[in-house]
Design goal:
This protein has 273 residues and is mainly α. The protein is 82% helix and 0% strand. Helix 3 packs parallel to helix 6, helix 7 packs across helix 8 and helix 8 packs antiparallel against helix 10. The longest helix is centred in the N-terminal third of the chain and has 50 residues.
Length: 273
């Protein structure tokens, strides 16, 4: 009994040591990431001051941050609008992509009929399609969500469809033999098995979502960060343009990190892609 207790204690100590090592490695990784970014900003600041570059060409980071104090730019309101467009289009593409991939996995006829059409539609340049979307739906947040959706939808569809097809056929046959419904098959077998693939598509779509919102606001909009960039371009306020780009980047990073967090929660470590 004592040997069993000692083995259990040693196993617990080993597991705790491993967790501490993983935590230390994670902290070192993030410190390195922040250190590289901080070094870049410092070099940028010192380089601009040393070269005495005009702000219209390349503003210093401090000049960029200073634009946040200008109330006429309404940074909070414009950032909120762009965030809604990004998140709304992204979530719509996630629901549609996973849902359609599920239908394709259930029906070979539907796949043969619709999948080639979707591939063809995906080949249309979204920038060229943007003006038509504006004509059909006017402009605004909803339209920009649709443009974001058009960029994010196909990567999620492809990766989810592949994940659903990678599920072990024997498991599906077992559920069928037990008279399980298609929904039960998806919920208990297909969805858990395809989660690594779904999250792979979600990470790609998270990168494209910001581009979709920017395209929509560039074409026709009266709010949002990309719209603000066009407005300040006329006055050659380069610092404000940099600030808009920075906020767009932060929105994209926030969405990507949210996807990584969800992947860490729902997908086992060994299965992450």
């Amino acid at each position: 009994m004592e040997s069993v207790a000692e083995d259990a204690a040693l196993a617990g100590q080993a597991a705790a040591a491993q967790r501490r090592a993983e935590l230390r490695q994670t902290l070192l990784h993030w410190l390195a990431v922040f250190g590289v970014h901080a070094a870049l900003v410092l070099v940028w600041q010192l380089g601009v001051r040393a070269a005495a570059l005009p702000a219209v060409v390349l503003p210093a980071p401090t000049d960029i941050i200073a634009t946040l104090a200008r109330p006429n730019y309404d940074w909070a309101g414009n950032t909120w609008v762009t965030a809604i467009e990004i998140l709304g289009g992204y979530l719509l593409s996630l629901v549609a992509g996973v849902g359609l991939a599920l239908l394709f996995s259930w029906s070979r006829l539907l796949t043969l009929a619709l999948f080639p059409l979707l591939v063809t539609l995906n080949m249309i340049p979204k920038v060229a399609l943007g003006p038509l979307v504006i004509v059909w739906f006017s402009y605004g947040i909803g339209t920009n969500m649709l443009i974001t959706f058009s960029l994010c939808f196909f990567p999620i569809l492809l990766t989810t469809l592949r994940g659903l097809r990678e599920v072990e056929p024997d498991l599906l046959d077992l559920v069928r033999s037990l008279k399980g419904s298609r929904w039960a098959m998806f919920r208990t077998i297909q969805l858990p098995g395809s989660l690594p693939y779904i999250f792979s598509g979600m990470k790609v779509a998270a990168i494209l979502a910001v581009a979709g919102a920017v395209v929509g606001e560039f074409i026709a909009s009266d709010r949002g960060l990309a719209y603000l960039m066009i407005q300040v371009q006329a006055s050659l306020d380069t610092a404000a343009m940099f600030m808009a780009v920075l906020l767009l980047t932060l929105l994209g990073i926030a969405l990507y990190l949210a996807v990584l967090l969800l992947e860490r929660i729902f997908v086992p470590k060994d299965a992450r892609k």
